[in-house]
Amino acid sequence: MNTLEEAELCFPQLVNSSCRKNMRPHSVSTIIFITLSTISVITVTLNLLVVISISHFKQLHTPTNFLLLSLAVSDFFVGLLILFQIMLIDGCWFLGDLMCALYFLLDYIITSSSVGTMVLISIDRYIAICDPLHYPSKVTQNRVKGCILLCWICSIVFQCLLLRDNLEHPGRFNTCFGECVVVVGYFSGIADVVFSFTIPITVIIVLYLRVFVVAVSQARALRSQIGPAAPQGSVNAKKSELKALRTVSIVIIVFLICLCPYYCVTFAQEDALLNTSSIAFVMCLFYVNSCLNPLIYALFYPWFRKSIKLIITLQILQPGTSEASIV
Known about the structure:
Elements: H1 2-7, H2 26-56, H3 63-87, H4 97-130, H5 135-138, H6 141-162, H7 164-168, E1 181-183, H8 186-225, H9 232-268, E2 273-275, H10 280-300, H11 302-312
Antiparallel strand pairs: 1-2
């Protein structure tokens, strides 16, 4: 009997203070392991391809693509975070209290930076569609790089302040050995929801409502312009912008669908108590979103499919390939 009870503990040598494992059928654990492992590999691989593509080919060095690069970097780290969820299949945390706090810190930073990047993408599309004449002068590569850097720095600083107590005293809120729990104060949790979710999502929705109205009018004007007398360059430019708008719109809509449950669960909890079991489902949605983004690029961006081919065949190792035309 004692042997059976010890087998159910995360740390059998600590009979009176160890957490208990999540006892589930072996087949269920195997399915969870295979599913998470598959999502992790696909997410890391595809987003790494996005990072290499935009970083290597100079023709892809555009403001919009740099924003997609920032999003791919955060999605890449999400793929790595799934490895921690794989280790938690049985509900036990074996990496220590400090690593638990750092795990949640990284998760918070990635989520916050992803939301910030989505806001920047919305602003980029807003200017491109609503003020196209001034877009090249307003949205430059250096300005976009500066905004991306500022977004990541603000995310890191804000989340470090949010989880300061957990970082200074890791494991203080654990009830048993093998548990991974962080607690965010009520007012800190409200601040996180407001600044990391409510305000950014409101900005995204307002901008895209405005962009949608302008895009519809431009599409109608474009159809009326198509003809022998229409300037071909102007028509192609508008088509390109509308196509880019469609792609990033899908990315943002999918992002909102996958992220909203995460913050709804966080906000609904009385004291913003987060543990690895209570947010399992919403975290999986967030993980799936990071896997879907590069798949959306592959469906709608021919340059991504072409760059993948060059990367997989190792043609990018040849000299001068960074100057290749893939758009």
